[in-house]
Write a structure and sequence with these properties.
The complex is a heterotrimer of chains A (238), B (269) and C (234). Chain B is α/β, with parallel strands linked by helices. Helix content of chain B is 41%, strand content 24%. The chains are: A alpha/beta (238), B alpha/beta (269), C mainly alpha (234).
């Protein structure tokens, strides 16, 4: 647990995004509290990735606001993308670079990086060039890098979409462990099984709007909206 | 690891030699003088006697005088009396001293299309060449040699023109290269000719005419105009050049046993 | 040309006997060109990266002008530096004319546009690939410059080699600002020019072969390093 106060809750109030004359997202109200494990569900093109990027600050909303508890001097939330983007250097160096950006003093970087790699089971590959790792290993490295400085919130954008079941399981276990360790998780996925396995809360997105938002049990047992019903049945959603 | 190697390599190579620790003067002279090899023979003797290094920048006469005007040289050593006098009159140089003279020769292809070989009258030879419109390669670069060539045409009351008269706009060596390749006549100083290795059948066709003499003068760049000129060392050079040691060295310079330059400073002998 | 066998013989003789004059000329050429490339990298890599990352009015114009300067004729660069360094020029008091330093300055001017333009292209492409991730980690554009330069080092190496090639091959700039002074500012290219104009073609050819061999050696080693790195994924 971090000694400093958490930047949560995160509040999205009426957030929307227009681009090129098209409204891609609108009227999104969302709150993420400490201990959350929120899965954002929805068909392709619903706006899930866009929502994550807005929450993470990679994009500015064209309407509404994204608010944290306070503006922390250092970024205390991180993101893992669908395709891991790694620098042309060693596995360890990728993590120490992230720590440097997060403001970790030079003397502590290696130790914290090794610890981060250890948490994802990559400690043995620390000196390997990051680009020669397998897909699953690279995604675990991305996770280690994102969480090395113990963020309060971790965003994940379909992190297992390109991975095989074994690698997927490894990632899910790490996400569980992070959540247990106090990190709030906000994750998008189109894999229903994964959603069922992980979610505490579900936000169902369709065509740029939040259609339904409920605790996981309620959502899966009794979806309220016709779109959610169709989606859970495996039907195409309009 | 590899990067540290590169860094070290760069560090060694960037350390350029500390220039200007030695004592030296800069002399602006001409390409033909340098190509004659005279400086390689002459300058070490001066440096040994005085400890002053001489750095020669060899360019065309026009550019050498321009370097003097700009103060980029301490001494100007060229062979175009008319331009030299203008240079001094304009206040850019002082104390011109005659040093030596060499001569020009007319060279031409072995088949001698204008039939001027063996002549001793340069005006006549040029007239014959102009009438026959035999190819002629000129430097066309405003150098001392080029100006001398132009004077010879003028004195013969001729105006050479294309297509048989070709201005290469380059130094003596390149012009001779061109003449050899084109089978053309050319006016050259004897020094460059003796050193020139790419003759391809070119040979001397006219020599010995008094009008072909080429006098050299050495001038101090005016210190009143350019305070940084190394006056004392420059004067030492000029005095040495026109004194018995320098004049003797000039006389002793030969190519294949032939003397190239003839001492002209009246202080000598 | 019947001269050709003797040209190779002359060149071989120079190299095998480790002719000191040749050695001096080669050493000076390398020192001048490598120094110019080093300075151009120190200045040009950050500028190229900044040009890739920052948007400002007139950015495209600047990029186009710099790219056009890759074709700056060496003699023009030489003339420009001569006018600056001449005793009658603004920087005359520095006394740099006809020194190796002047030659380095002139060659840096020739190499800089190449380094900047190629760096800009490499960094632009890299930023498109890793920019979002770097921003996610909290990197500003300024902070990203050294990261991207290091990450793109293999591609940037080609740019550096191109710059080296241009500088080592040129004669116009170093001739004008250096003066081709024997033992002081005479490089391989100016020596070749001198021997050619003397008509001593075998010697000129010989020097030319040495120059080509040197360039090939340097380019090949950089190539090997690059291929080696790529294979390792380093």
């Amino acid at each position: 647990m971090r000694a400093e106060p958490s930047i949560l809750p995160l509040s999205l109030k009426g957030v929307g995004f227009r681009h090129g004359g098209q409204t891609l997202l609108t009227g999104v109200d969302l709150t993420v509290r400490a201990g959350a494990l929120t899965i954002i569900l929805g068909p392709n093109g619903a706006g899930k990735s866009l929502l994550l990027r807005l929450a993470h600050g990679l994009l500015e909303p064209t309407e509404g606001a994204v608010e944290w508890a306070f503006e922390a001097p250092r970024r205390r939330h991180a993101m893992v993308f669908q395709k891991p983007v790694l620098l042309r250097r060693s596995t360890l160096a990728n993590v120490t670079h992230a720590l440097a950006l997060a403001g970790t003093p030079r003397a502590q970087r290696v130790a914290e990086a090794v610890a981060a790699l250890d948490r994802v089971g990559l400690a043995g590959l620390a000196d390997r060039p990051a680009r020669v790792l397998s897909g699953g290993e690279q995604q675990r490295l991305a996770l280690a890098r994102a969480t090395a400085s113990r963020p309060d919130v971790l965003f994940l954008d379909e992190p297992c979409a390109a991975l095989d079941p074994a690698a997927t399981r490894a990632i899910e276990e790490i996400v569980h462990a992070l959540h247990a360790g106090g990190t709030a998780i906000v994750m998008t996925t189109h894999d229903l099984g994964q959603a069922r396995r992980l979610a505490r809360d579900v936000v169902f997105l369709n065509r740029g709007r939040v259609v339904e938002s409920a605790p996981a049990e309620d959502f899966f047992a009794a979806p309220q909206s016709p779109q959610a019903v169709a989606f859970l049945n495996g039907d195409l959603v309009w | 690891m590899v990067n540290r190697l590169f860094a070290a390599l760069f560090a060694c190579l960037i350390a350029l030699p500390a220039v200007a620790q030695e004592r030296f003067i800069t002399v602006a002279s001409t390409t033909s003088t340098e190509q004659s090899g005279l400086f390689t023979h002459l300058l070490p003797k001066f440096t040994e006697a005085t400890g002053i290094e001489v750095r020669v920048v060899a360019v065309g006469t026009g550019q050498a005088l321009r370097l003097g005007e700009n103060g980029d040289a301490d001494v100007v050593f060229v062979h175009d009396t008319a331009s030299e006098e203008k240079f001094i009159a304009a206040g850019f140089g002082v104390d011109r001293k005659p040093v030596m003279y060499n001569d020009f020769v007319l060279v031409g292809p072995a088949n001698d299309p204008a039939k001027v070989k063996g002549g001793q009258d340069i005006s006549k030879a040029l007239a014959v060449i102009a009438k026959a419109e035999a190819p002629f390669a000129s430097r066309g670069d405003d150098s001392g040699t080029h100006k001398a060539e132009q004077r010879l045409w003028k004195d013969a009351a001729l105006t050479p023109a294309a297509p048989w008269y070709r201005e290469t706009g380059s130094g003596m060596g390149p012009t001779l290269n061109t003449a050899a390749a084109m089978g053309a006549y050319a006016l050259t100083d004897r020094g460059t000719w003796l050193n020139f290795k790419n003759r391809q059948g070119l040979e001397i066709v006219v020599e010995g005419d008094r009008r072909l003499a080429n006098p050299y003068g050495v001038i101090l760049v005016n210190p009143a105009r350019h305070a940084h000129v190394k006056e004392a060392d420059a004067r030492a050079f000029m005095d040495w050049l026109t004194g018995p040691a320098g004049q003797g060295a000039i006389t002793s310079y030969t190519i294949n046993g032939e003397q190239l330059f003839f001492p002209d400073a009246h202080a000598a002998n | 040309m019947s001269d050709q066998p003797s040209a190779f013989a002359a060149a071989l003789n120079l190299v095998l006997t480790l002719d000191p004059q040749l050695g001096e000329i080669v050493a000076l050429s390398l020192r001048v060109t490598l120094s110019a490339v080093a300075v151009a990298c120190v200045i040009g890599l950050p500028i190229g990266a900044a040009l890739a990352l920052y948007r400002f009015p007139g950015r495209q114009v600047v990029a186009v002008v710099i790219a056009a300067l890759m074709g700056l004729p060496p003699v023009v660069a030489g003339l420009f530096i001569y006018l600056l360094l001449s005793r009658s020029g603004p920087l005359g008091d520095w006394g740099l004319l006809f020194t190796p330093t002047a030659m380095v300055i002139a060659q840096t001017l020739l190499v800089l546009p190449i380094i900047i333009t190629l760096t800009r292209q490499v960094v632009e492409d890299l930023w498109a690939e890793v920019g979002e991730q770097l921003r996610s980690l909290g990197s500003s554009r300024a902070r990203a410059i050294p990261t991207l330069l290091w990450d793109g080092r293999l591609s940037l190496l080609s740019g550096v080699l191109a710059g080296f090639g241009r500088a080592s091959a040129e004669v116009g700039a170093v001739l004008i600002v250096g003066g081709n002074i024997a033992g002081v500012t005479r490089t391989m290219t100016t020596a070749i020019a001198l021997e050619t104009s003397r008509g001593d073609l075998p010697l000129a050819l010989g020097l030319g072969l040495v120059l080509i061999a040197l360039t090939i050696a340097l380019t090949a080693s950089a190539h090997v390093i690059g291929a080696f790195s790529r294979r390792l994924g380093v």
